[in-house]
Write a structure and sequence with these properties.
Strand content: 25-35%
Structural class: alpha+beta
Shape: globular
Number of helices: 4
Number of strands: 5
Order of helices and strands: HHEEEHEHE
Largest sheet: 5 strands, antiparallel
Radius of gyration: 14 Å
Oligomer: single chain
Helix content: 25-40%
Length: 112
């Protein structure tokens, strides 16, 4: 890993997004906009994803982030934002590993 990549991994995800965009990468950002019950990350948490699947930050953890990263590929391709919801009332909660008893809503959009 280069020194620049090490620095970006320790920076705020928004700074990472800015650096990636400045280097010509297509970037999407996921933002936790609502939580209910037990949630691993608070409202306002960010995950940035580039078109190659590189990511920085966190919106949840484990398989939930894998699902967000997979959705980001399509958001980057189409430019259409998405609202994603993961929770115990949803069958996807167990499929993506959100068995903590909470719910999160994540807004995913392309930057730039």
């Amino acid at each position: 890993m280069s020194d620049a990549e090490n620095v970006m991994q320790t920076q705020d995800p928004l700074a990472t997004a800015e650096a990636w965009m400045a280097s010509g990468r297509d970037v999407a950002i996921a933002t936790v906009i609502e939580t209910w019950g037990s949630a691993p990350r608070p409202t306002g948490s960010h995950l940035v994803i580039d078109a190659d699947g590189n990511f920085a930050g966190s919106v949840s953890g484990g398989c939930v982030e894998g699902a967000v990263i997979a959705e980001a590929a399509e958001v980057l391709e189409t430019g259409e934002p998405r609202m994603l919801e993961f929770g115990v009332a949803d069958e996807t909660a167990w499929r993506v590993g959100l068995s903590c008893g909470g719910r999160i809503r994540v807004y995913l959009e392309r930057l730039g």
